Amino acid sequence: MDNTKKKSGFQWGIFIFGGLAGIIGVSLFLGELHYSASEKFCISCHEMEANVYMEYKNTSHYLNKSGVRATCSDCHLSNNLLEKVGRKVKAVNEVIQHFKGTIDTREKFLDHRLELATKVWAEMKANDSRECRSCHTAANMDYMKQSSRAMAQHIQGEDAGKTCIECHKGIAHRLPDMHTIDPSAVIGEASPE
Amino acid sequence: MKKNITKLLILLGLACIAFPSYAEEVKSLRGTRDLDAGSEPPEIKRLIADDRPIPRDFVQQPPLIPHKIDGYHIDKNYNKCLSCHSWTNYKQAKATKVPPTHFQDRDGNELANLSPGRYFCTLCHVSQLDTSPLVGNEFEPVKALR
User: Fold this and answer.
1) Which CATH superfamily includes the segment(s) A18-140?
2) ipTM of predicted complex
3) Residue B114 touches chain A, beta carbons under 8 Å
């Protein structure tokens, strides 16, 4: 009788301890996820701070009339937990490239810009501009409040099954060399690889 | 002698009537404030952001831009204007295509792509603010456009 009582007390102990450890563990994990999705974290790397961040500061996703701001993670990180963790795993490559110094100067960054941007565009096209649509959904748009030309384009694009990124490239950062993407909209020769 | 003095006085009087503007101060657009007094903050002007094509006053005039152009960069990597106005893109964008004149160099030779002299569109094409002109103007469009 005494023995079982003692045992269950011990079991309770483990249960409570395990529970607490679990809660702390999950909080730390979520906290890390949250912190590593913050703007502060993203621009703690010079590569992001000096290039894409500086450019983004001149765009309407940074500063606009309504005071709503979309920061790095709003456009580049899914709200889905699994996807988020998956992205963190992928980011291991970014850490490696950081230490290899692959894009540690503006020149090196510009040399890689087409490749990097092309990857992001492909991702966004494949997921139907999911992160764009977490704020901008076609169904919630009041076309009548848009400029006449934007309205026409949005209706036409939506009907043709296009996705945001197909037209809205280079809205939060400057564009790479577009000679291969849209040769009708640039003159001269493509810059050598 | 007396005659001469009266003549001189009459002349002086006439001069005062003929050039009364000498009495007025020269006024710049800035007003009459002292240079070191700082200037009045100008009224904030709004862009004409969504208009029909604006009528031209003479045939060779570079048409004014009837839409917003904020953030439309033009550099060696890309010309944002051409993403709608190029011959490949204008139909899809329902925009006016760049005219063939923009494919000629300054000597009139035809080029395969846009002339470098026309690449920076905003040298000649500008958007408009919704405001009245600073100075009056009685210009009339040429007969061909009236």
Assistant:
1) Di-heme elbow motif domain (1.10.3820.10)
2) 0.83
3) yes
